[in-house]
Write a structure and sequence with these properties.
- This protein is of the alpha+beta class.
- The protein is 52% helix and 17% strand.
- The protein contains 14 helices and twelve strands.
- The strands form two sheets. A six-stranded mixed barrel has the order 4-5-10-7-9-8, surrounded by four helices.
- Strand 4 and strand 5 form a beta hairpin.
- The longest helix is centred in the first third of the chain and has 39 residues.
- The two termini are 28 Å apart.
Length: 412
């Protein structure tokens, strides 16, 4: 059966090769397009998830309204406002840090957590200054919730625990300030307090905003700068299973007035772009299936039309309808398998080339990011072979319905 199927395809070699080329190019396009899209998504998600934490617990800002002050000034009395209260009440610290510590330590879903004291500052020198966020952290805990150490170009996170007034800054901020390792930077707090921090580490996340806008120091230094000896503004949490982040954050937010937000909730607008990319990728998959199905249907339909006499002879010597259908399905699967394998190879080589292309500037991603997940290749192969099998069925049924006596009589 396999020999007959191959013989019929070789009889129309040019059409068979054109169909194989179409299948290969369609499969390769899917592999390269999916690799680029998923590579970009993986890089962004890795940056969002591992740079900071899976869940962030922070003070909740509250919009002022007349209901905010019910029962505050005159309990059980009706208050009429000449000018209703408006604007935002900004909380500067967590409501119950000790309670959060107890809950997080008891929750088996939590892998690690770390306190932070974060505040806006100005950082600079005599000729250059820029706004930044100062993160006061506990180095031993912080290293358990983020992958910051993997992004350090110089120094280590634990350097911050050697004393006060030490800092780790981003590579772009370091270049803009012209400061080197063990040099000093000046920061100014919103209250006008000035301090000099010694640079003991330089990191690079590959994002210009992060590499310029974040400064890390010991939490005790941050507390001294904010004139608060025990305030905590945030708790960052790492879970054993990052996919549970949104569910856990929603559950925790129900019993606290603090703001509990997972990484995907905080970046919902960005992740919606990923959904759009997935729709485009699905559309491309549908186009590939149509290309493959049309190509295989066309060539097998021509084979049935031109090989009616040979099919009639096969039927007359014992081939039944099942055997005839099987013959053409094998031809479709041969085209699908060979074309898919060639397409996967072309797609892989294309991805290797694309990953060498430099993009962006010096402070952004330097090469195209491509994903080589096995699922891309498995799915690409599966849709091509499935489309080949399905598109072979109609010509196979038509061939099976041919009656030998009618074909021979028509030929005569």
């Amino acid at each position: 059966m396999l020999f007959l199927a191959g013989r019929q395809l070789l009889d129309r070699l040019q059409q068979s090769m054109l169909t194989l080329t179409g299948i290969a190019l369609g499969t390769a396009a899917y592999v390269m397009f999916s690799g680029i899209m998923l590579g970009f998504q993986d890089q962004i998600v890795d940056l969002l998830v591992n740079t900071d934490a899976h869940i962030r617990i922070s003070p909740r800002d509250q919009l002022r309204s007349p209901e905010t002050y019910e029962g505050v000034f005159f309990p059980e009395s009706r208050v009429s406002w000449i000018t209703p209260p408006s604007g935002m009440n900004t909380a500067d610290h967590l409501s119950n840090v000790y309670g959060w510590y107890q809950r997080l330590e008891a929750d088996p879903r939590v892998a690690a957590f770390a306190p932070q004291l974060n505040q806006q500052v100005m950082v600079g020198n005599a000729s250059y200054s820029v706004a930044a966020v100062l993160f006061g952290v506990e180095p031993a805990r912080q290293r358990l919730v983020s992958n910051m150490e993997a992004n350090l170009l110089e120094g280590s996170l634990m350097e911050l625990s050697r004393g006060n007034s030490l800092a780790i800054i981003g590579s772009r901020l370091q270049r803009n300030l012209g400061v080197r390792l063990n040099g000093r930077i000046q920061i100014v707090t919103p209250t006008g307090k000035r301090a000099y921090l010694k640079v003991v580490g330089i990191y690079e996340f590959g994002n210009s905003q992060l590499d310029q806008g974040f400064i890390y120091t010991d939490i005790h230094t941050a507390q001294a700068l904010s004139d608060s000896s025990s305030f905590i503004t945030d708790i960052v949490v790492r879970l054993h299973d990052v996919s549970q982040a949104a569910e856990v954050a929603t559950q925790w937010s129900q019993f606290t007035r603090d703001k509990v937000e997972s990484w995907d909730q905080a970046n919902e607008s960005l992740l919606s772009v990923f959904q759009m990319q997935d729709v485009i990728r699905s559309s491309l998959t549908a186009v590939i299936v149509l290309i493959i199905a049309f190509g295989i249907y066309n060539i097998l339909n021509m084979v049935v039309f031109q090989k009616q006499k040979e099919i009639a002879i096969l039927r007359s010597i014992g081939f039944d309808q099942k055997d005839t259908i099987q013959l053409f399905l094998i031809q479709g699967l041969i085209l699908g398998v060979l074309g898919s394998l060639a397409g996967l190879l072309i797609g892989f080589l294309g991805c290797l080339y694309i990953s060498t292309i430099s993009i962006g500037g010096e402070d952004t991603i330097r090469q195209m990011l491509v994903s080589y997940k096995p699922s891309i290749y498995i799915f690409g192969f599966s849709i091509s072979v499935t489309a080949a099998a399905l598109s072979s069925f109609l010509p196979a049924r038509r061939a099976a319905k041919l009656q030998p006596i009618e074909v021979i009589r028509g030929a005569g």
